[in-house]
Amino acid sequence: MITIGVNYIGGPGHDSAAAIAVDGKLEFAIAEERLTRNKQDASFPIQAIQACLDYKKIMIEEVDELVFGWPELKEHYANSLKLNMMGKLHENIPMQALNYFRSLTTRNVKNLLDSYGIKPKKITHIDHHLAHAWSVAPFLAAEDSLIFIIDGRGIKESTTVYLKKGMKLEMIERINFPNSLGVYYAEMTSMCGFRKYSDEWKVMGLAPFGKNSFDLSHLLHTDNGIHHVNHKTLLNVEKLELDGKTITRPENDEVAINDEDLRDLAHSAQDQYEKALCKLVKFYTDKFGIKSIGMAGGVGLNCKANGFLMRELSLEEFFIQPAATDDGTAIGAALYPFMENGTLKKSVFYPYLGKEYSDEVIEATLKKYRLNYTKIKEVEADAAQELANNKIIGWFQGRDEFGPRALGNRSIISNPGTSEMKDKVNEVVKYREGWRPFAPSMLQEEANKFLQNIKSSPYMILTDYAKEENAAKIPAVVHVDGTMRPQTVEKEMNTRYWNLINEFYKISGIPVVMNTSFNLKGEPNVCHPTDAVRTFFTSGLEVLYLGNYKVQK
Fold first, then answer.
1. Distances in Å between the alpha carbon of 156 and those of 168, 405, 482?
2. What separation in angstroms does the CA of 535 have from each of 170, 265, 379?
3. CA 33 – CA 412 distance, rounded (Å)
4. Is 386 helix (H, G, I), strand (E, B) or coil?
5. How far is Cα 28 from Cα 41, in angstroms, rounded to an integer?
6. Which of 174, 282, 347, 527 is the most buried (most CB within 10 A)?
7. Residues 413, 419, 423, 424: is their CA dihedral positive or negative?
8. CA-CA distance, 237 to 191, in Å (whole number)?
9. Given this model, what pLDDT does residue 18 score?
């Protein structure tokens, strides 16, 4: 049995994606943005669907079921119109009515499929949070677990709690929009001058520069397993009165780092969120006596809060889907039919699910652009020496990662041994704010020398405090509050990346490299060798490794 899962709703969506599963095994997944080069692309993922078919060398007629991780679009607009009439959503009613009409015509999934000549055997739409949940459930080792799906909004829902027993899910609580943790954090993001539903991670990075100056409990608190968000105040907020101060949303994102009130707002917003989330999760872990939890939904990418949960609740298992935002629902949608027929099995999540390019394709690309290149026998050792020489390298290997984190196949890598390296990469490669932190990739076997609490974090989705005795060895990846967002690299999961770090360890005595996504500001991560070449020559990158080939300027 072959299924393709799709994340696509229409106008209000983001992160369109597709995934393919065969006989219950996830085999390939890719976001549309990687192929169109349009960040967070919300368009119908025709290229992602074709990439799934190309990977398996099949036609759409051979796919048994095409599953969408959303109900039909008309349900979204019908519910939005209802919320507007109730005064819970402040949007343009005539535009909503027009969008509802479009959802029945030009944005209707069946009409879109017809326009692309796609005629699958079966089309299924499933609940949005259920699609998120099935992107998590098969990858939890424990027989009994709790799964928390938390985002801005599905059709009605904003938070759903599931009890997993074996490979069955029971919904035990649902909290509906606009009572939404995603709304809370998005509006706090906007109040700091960043783009909501896009730049939330900037608030996490800014928070350690501030202090807990503002009481935000009137905007967010949790009681008896239910969070309460003051959406009447927060939705599209432009100004907040907080503890005798008036905070006004700035017009751009360059202000926050130099504004004490905005730094403090970011800190206070993150702190209040962590407390509310922890209280929410603890209510259910205590109620059911379960220490294994899973999480997805865009809020699941708040790695700072995730690390706080892990420490505060002493969790035995905590799996957050690395593709936690809506692109990850393509995974859950693809796996859903196998749950239905009882053939879905537990497995370990493998994030390297995207496209891979042979040395022949890479060399053809290098020849096309008439570049000087060398084929290297021992790529990892050569790259490690360049790192030791303080060169910033582009590292393009194997299959593309699925999700927003660069996990060593499409990464920009450098030496973490000096704080100046962070400033250099921010300035001449990423073209972004100098205060923004970078993540360490470290050998799994050596992680306990650098992390106070975390033993394993292969998907770079938890933060932890650095051990003081070794923090000075890697200043480029330790944030201002002494925390890191680590990736612990396992040899079995990514052999070439592990070997690179190990070779650098032999030279430098440091089993850690500084890792960031292989892209420029405002762009999706690179996918094709051409993307890597273009990024290399339009940035301060100094060495590029494409498979077994080395390119220098």
1. 23, 28, 39
2. 46, 35, 20
3. 19
4. helix
5. 19
6. 527
7. negative
8. 7
9. 98
How many Cα atoms within 13 Å fall on the side-chain side of residue 432?
19
179 CB-near residues (< 8 Å, 6+ apart): 158, 227, 228, 229, 231
Helix (H), strand (E) at residue 461: none
pLDDT on residue 205: 93
Q: Is 297 exposed, middle or buried (0-12, 13-18, 19+ CB in 10 A)?
A: buried
Closest by CA to 326, choosing from 348, 299, 350, is 299
pLDDT at 150: 98
| Residue 286: partners with Cβ closer than 8 Å, 6 or more residues away | none
DSSP letter (8 states) at residue 352: B
- Residue from 226, 235, 154 nearest 188 by CA: 235
* Count of CB atoms situated within 10 Å of the CB of 239: 9
pLDDT digit string (tens) for 7-27? 999 878 899 999 999 999 999
Please count the residues of the chain: 553
Nearest alpha carbon to residue 544 among 385, 441, 396: 396
Do 243 and 277 meet the contact criterion of CB atoms below 8 Å apart? no
User: What pLDDT is recorded for position 512?
Assistant: 98
Radius of gyration, CA atoms only, the chain: 23
Using 50 as the pLDDT threshold, list the residues of the chain that sit under it.
none
541: its two tokens: 């990158």
- Cα separation, 101 vs 97, whole angstroms: 6
Residue-level pLDDT at 82: 81
168-176 β-sheet, strand order: 168-176, 157-165, 144-150, 292-296, 317-320
Distance between CA atoms of residues 175 and 3, nearest Å = 30
**What residues form DSSP beta bridges with 231?**
none
Q: Which two tokens stand for residue 536?
A: 């290399």
Strands (E), 321-409: 373-375, 393-396
The SS3 assignment for 249 reads coil
**Element (DSSP H or E) covering residue 42:** none
The pLDDT assigned to 75 comes to 86
Neighbours of 96 (CB within 10 A): 18
Q: 228 with 220: CB under 8 angstroms?
A: yes
CA distance 524 to 33: 6
What end-to-end distance do the CA atoms of the chain give, in Å?
48
Cross-strand bridge partners of residue 550: 374, 545
106-160 pLDDT per residue, tens: 778 888 898 998 889 999 999 999 999 999 999 999 999 999 999 999 999 999 9
Tokens of 317: 């298992």
- Measured CA distances, 89 to 75, 95, 158, 285 (Å): 16, 13, 14, 33
So what's the pLDDT on residue 102? 77
Contact 518, 430 (CB under 8 A): no
H or E segment to which residue 273 belongs: helix 260-288
